[in-house]
Amino acid sequence: MSEAVEYERIGDIAVLAANNPPVNALGVDVRRGLLAGIERAEAEGAKAVLIYGKGRTYFAGADIREFGKPPQEPWLPGLCDRIEASPLLVVSALHGTALGGGLEVALSSHYRIAVPSAKVGLPEVNLGILPGAGGTQRLPRVAGVEAALDMITTGRHVRADEALKLGVIDKVQDGDPREIGLAYAQELLDSGAPRRAVGEMPAPDPVDFDAVYEAVLKKGRGQLSPAVAVRAVQAACEAPSFAEGMARERELFMQLMESDQRKGLIHAFFAERAVGKLPELKGVEPRPVHQIGVIGGGTMGAGIATAALLAGLPVTLLEMTQEAAHAAKDRIAGNLAGALKRGKISQQQHDAILSDQLQLATGYDALSAVDLVIEAVFEDMDVKKQVFAQLDAVCKPGAVLATNTSYLDVNEIAAATKRPQDVIGLHFFSPAHVMKLLEIVVADKTAPEVVATGFALGHRLKKVSVRAGVCDGFIGNRILSTYRTCADHMVLDGASPFQIDKALTDFGFAMGPFAVSDLAGLDIGWAVRKRKRAEGLDPRARDSSYADKLCEAGHFGQKTGKGFYVYEKGKRGGTPNPEVLDLIAADRAAQGITPRTFTDDEIVRRYMVSMVNEAAKVVGEGIARRPLDVDVVLLYGYGFPRYRGGPLKWADLQGLPGILDDIRAWSAEDDYFWQPAPLLEKLVAEGRSFDDLNKDAE
Ligand code: 3HC
Ligand code: NAI
Question: Which Gene3D superfamilies does UniProt cross-reference here (predicted)?
């Protein structure tokens, strides 16, 4: 027997216990062990087989690390068929998460029992594939086509009580999976229950699959796997036999397995788990954090306070005046009301948070006992320095002092204190209680346990935390500044903001850059442009004034009802603001530019290449530790399409030499903006990829 599956005989029942921590993924050893276990049980004359998982879960799916490598026998679909075909009564006992191939093994068992906390699901589409071991054929036979389509196209995790109602499992019972499984198998044997193979059940009734396909394709914003999965479910209804349905599932599965989208999504899966794995944190204990302070209760401060309160951390919020403090409390209350409405907290929790967990203050003494403070005051270095000097005077020794600055130099802020080792950047994204990304900005003198404390706080707030170094804009905003500038150049040269936004949403971005500016507020970019002009622009840098004109007229985007788009009350989204085209035309005329046409492909290529080039600089300078850190920042903070894996995964899939060729070609027209990143040149010269750098860092 394989060590990954333990065999035990209890009376008439052969027990197969998977033991492949941490999640009992169905790697080759587990598959071999299950096959050997079924064969041995049959040879030994057992009457029933119980399959369960040791540790924290039943099988959480196929072993994703095997994807893209030569497959090793037995393959999962064949194994599932073999389990189902067994003349013995096969029972699966589920706990933890029975996902993907895990649920497929359960569905090829003849009966399924689960503990109440178990969850089941077929999340394959989120990895760019579809259930490939009979899930698309067996699930519709037990749950009906509608429920199967919902589970398979969304990949959602379904709780045991709902799975019972849907017919996915047969019984829910509290207890140890081995014990409840044994009792259930014995009960079935005693009652003479028949062997019940889902594959032998009649084909389910069809629905209008073409309509479902179109709707799912549209919802996926270019992601293919959910739509392709619809066709596999269709085969469950329409194929002449179960075996032919399985063959169709296999064919579609293999198509997706070969796709770039599969590569992108699996990269994203492992990248988001790798970001927190840092050599500098090995063996470093975070400092305990029991209560936190937040300074400034505007958009960000209120959002950060909300995130902390929702995670059970008491917050002391400091504002400049009583009125401002109460306005901040109102903002937090609004955020909490949203959480209540979405069922994230109960009314009781909501009330308790507001009455007991949030303290308002206007004097720094209120922060003397907190373990960690996050500053979210105006983006102004002098104001930040004053705040940190005051924190230095009142905070207890060892308190972590964090800034939420978007762009400013965290070293300079740290230098305003006598304890720079305790100072760090914790850069949240707006709205801070919703957005999952947290950049943890490590300054020159930040102590390792302060970095560890940042990551521990991120984990507690359920954020995806990424380490960044200090530079103007850290990882995300620095790269954003570059690709946003690229978009401005294309506008000057002839593209319209509306064409650019459309080309990029067609590419898969949640929003185009101009719609994003409207959402964030055009005043933010205006302030940055004014600051940069005041600092003195490089004479070779191209500048534009059309967006300033919008701001000068009081149009700041969504909050004023007008920006690049016009927003009508009560309507979602906006319609293009025609005045913008006149402003752009005037800007072009003033700069002597004759506009040319851009194809959507060229727009996407220039935008993406500018993003990749800046990202390569960010990695090359050590601002991001690995290419995957950049990818996760763009995925979680900037609406980058997950199925493309992030900008640097996209670059690898496109081919780095072609990207460098484009940069060199475009530098002939603007050699200031299009300066190739030295890291990109090095990788191309060495014939290596960004993913090779990720592997080097493992
Ligand atoms: N294969 C390989 N490794 C896996 C894995 C899998 N299916 N699922 C999780 N892991 C690894 C993670 O990478 C992580 O490794 P690390 O500790 O080295 O970083 C470790 O297991 C623990 O995972 P998490 O940190 O994610 O643990 P959580 O407790 O937060 O979540 C989980 C557990 C809900 C099971 C989550 O890991 C998950 O969603 N896993 C993927 C499930 C999935 O997509 N299954 C379908 C696979 S595709 C398939 O089955 C194809 C089939 O149809 C043919
Ligand atoms: P905001 O203008 O909405 O809020 C700032 C708040 O700070 C105001 O309520 C103000 O009264 C208060 N304040 C100012 N000086 C203070 C002081 N000395 N003591 C106490 N309170 C003081 O600004 P916003 O958008 O919340 O930004 C705050 C910080 O977060 C800035 O550094 C910004 O760059 C950063 N940030 C902003 C993001 C955004 O999308 N708005 C995203 C990420 C970071």
Answer: 1.10.1040.50, 2-enoyl-CoA Hydratase, Chain A, domain 1, NAD(P)-binding Rossmann-like Domain
- Going by C-alpha positions, the residue among 35, 42, 34, 81 that lies closest to residue 58 is 34
Ligand 2 centroid to residue 32 C-alpha, Å: 58
Residue 568 lies in a domain: no
Residue whose CB lies within 8 A of the most ligand 2 atoms, among 322, 330, 406, for a mutation test: 406
Nearest alpha carbon, ligand 1 atom 18:
273
Q: Count CA within 13 A, CB hemisphere, residue 621.
A: 17
Largest CA distance in the chain: 90
pLDDT at 248 over 90: yes
CATH of residue 452's domain is 3.40.50.720
Q: Is residue 200 part of a domain?
A: yes
User: From the candidates 3, 84, 104, 698, which is the catalytic residue?
Assistant: 104
555 inside domain: no
Active site residue 124: yes
Of 258, 276, 304, which one is at a domain's C-terminal end? 258
Say if ligand 2 is within 6 A of residue 376 CB.
Answer: yes
104 is catalytic: yes
Residue from 306, 316, 317, 320 to probe ligand 2 pocket by mutation (most atoms less than 8 Å from CB): 320
Report the separation in Å between the CA atom of 23 and the middle of ligand 1, taken as the mean of its atom positions: 6
670 lines ligand 2 (CB under 6 A): no
Give whole-number Cα distances, 144 to 141, 166, 206, 228, 584, in Å. 6, 8, 9, 18, 55
For 4-13, 416-425, 516-525, 604-613, which range has the lowest pLDDT when averaged over its residues?
516-525
Verify that 380 and 489 share a domain, yes or no. Answer: no
From the candidates 8, 39, 124, 449, which is the catalytic residue? Answer: 124
Query: Where does ligand 1 bind, in terms of residues with CB under 6 Å?
Result: 22-23, 25, 60-65, 76, 97, 99-101, 104, 123-124, 127, 131-133, 135, 273
On whether residue 424 sits in a domain, the answer given is yes
Could you report the per-residue pLDDT of 63-117, keeping only the tens digit for each? 999 998 898 999 999 999 999 999 999 999 999 999 999 999 999 999 999 999 9
Cβ pair 86, 42 in contact under 8 A: yes
Cβ within 8 Å of residue 297, ≥6 positions away: 305, 317, 319, 324, 325, 327, 328, 329, 331, 332, 376
Kindly state whether residues 480 and 445 are assigned to the same domain.
Answer: no
- Per the structure, how many domains does the chain have? 3
What per-residue confidence (pLDDT) applies to 1?
53
Query: What is the identity of the amino acid at 58?
Result: Y
Q: Strand, coil or helix: what is 19? A: coil
pTM of the model: 0.95
Average pLDDT over residues 368-393: 97
Q: Are residues 203 and 351 in the same domain?
A: no
Interface predicted TM-score (ipTM): 0.96
Among protein residues, the one whose CA lies closest to atom 44 of ligand 2: 406
Domain end, chosen from 435, 455, 470, is at 470
Atom of ligand 2 nearest to the CA of 377: 7
Answer for the pair 439, 445: CB distance below 8 angstroms, yes or no. no
Same domain, residue pair 207 and 343 = no
